[in-house]
Amino acid sequence: MGNIKFVKENKEVVAADGANLRLKAIQNGIDIYTLIGKMTNCGGYGQCGTCIVEIVEGIENLSPRTDVENRKLKKKPENYRLACQSLVNGPVSVVTKP
């Protein structure tokens, strides 16, 4: 089990090991999309790149970056992830819409 802390929202949620970060955010009312992202997101398949989050603590508790993420985030810092591609395996702190 791992807690996901959403920093801007000042909200903490509990996630089972292997939980998808995007789904946990949506299930708990956390808005991870900008206005454009709300209209153009791919539904969690890693194709659009609109669910970017910044991991400020616990990046070692996420699954490794996928090939899709490496392509979509090649010009972003290493602690930027696509929420739809990130599986939580321990406590993390997340900044939405960095």
Secondary-structure map:
Blueprint: E1 2-6, E2 11-15, E3 19-20, H1 21-27, H2 35-40, E4 52-57, H3 67-72, E5 80-82, E6 87-88, E7 92-96
Parallel strand pairs: 1-7
Antiparallel strand pairs: 1-2, 3-6, 4-5, 4-7
Q: Can you give a write-up of this model?
A:
The protein has 98 residues and is α+β, with helices and mostly antiparallel strands. Helix content is 19%, strand content 29%. It has 3 helices and 7 strands, in the order E-E-E-H-H-E-H-E-E-E. The chain has helices at residues 21-27, 35-40, 67-72; strands at residues 2-6, 11-15, 19-20, 52-57, 80-82, 87-88, 92-96. A 5-stranded mixed β-sheet has the order 2-1-7-4-5, with helices on one face. Strands 3-6 form a two-stranded antiparallel ribbon. Strand 1 (2-6) and strand 2 (11-15) form a beta hairpin. The longest helix has 7 residues, at 21-27. The N and C termini lie far apart (25 Å). The mean pLDDT is 95.
Short synopsis of the structure:
This protein has 98 residues and is an alpha+beta fold. The chain has helices spanning 21-27, 35-40, 67-72; strands at 2-6, 11-15, 19-20, 52-57, 80-82, 87-88, 92-96.
